Fold:
Amino acid sequence: MARHSRGIRLAALIAAAASATALSACSSSGDSSPSPANGSSVGAGSPVGTGSSAGGTSAYAGKTIAVAAVSDYPPISFADAGSTKIKGVAVDILQALADEMGAKFDLQNTSFDSLIPSLQAGRQLIASGGTTDTPTNEKATIMVDFMQTGVQMIVPAGNPKGIKGLDAACGFTIAVLAGSPTYQGLINDASDACTKAGNKKINMSTFKTADEALLAVKAGRADAEVDSSILQSYRIQQGVKIEVIGENLAPHPIAFQVLPSNQPLADALKTALQGLMDNGKYKAILAQWKMESGALPAAGINLGANS
Structure:
């Protein structure tokens, strides 16, 4: 995953994507979805996408494709308390992509650290977890970028410990999502800087979900938490009593993931996303979630290659 010490040349990559000819799905290999894993289906019988869009001329028209989706990452992909229905900006984009492709996407609840294993096991063909597009992730999957974000640290409202930023968190405990080397890498880099300067290391505490990491901060088991700037902004919009500390670190694209063996599906998703950008539906979805600042100017694959 990307570390804060590496500069991200995202703008140049996006510009290149904008000028590239849109790729179309030219093969139907791997286009049928395996049966949903037992106990993992969300909203069984009601997959997103109507399968009847006029734009559904891809090799995936009429297909139902299983998607591994997290349910604890607002506003990207989440379920309300007591509900199994996954919603969010990524879900709405997936809905529109399915319609554009003439397909249906069956969202199946999957924890973040199980997304790639689920793809590799053949339970789903697409992963949707708001995953960072980095060179490390690109080795395991094709990253079909759909938004951009950054990384921010939050503390309880009022900042009772007086932490001024990640680079000044020496000796404190920071909560972070398990299975996210990007965030963990930022903390490790900051901790290394602490010890080299003769200060205490940063203690890192990992959690299976973003909600659990936030709860640790609220309960005083962690002094701060690191996660995406999109999530932190959404939390504040929802009235969570936290505040952002320090700068917005490591701006990067986030992506849907597809295995390298399924390049045609990745190409079809990219082509469909560009279609949504061209017809205005993409920006309309982001506007509904007040996420306009996360818009990409053009669809792309592996835009984080140089992050």
In short: The CA atoms of residues 48 and 105 lie 5 Å apart.
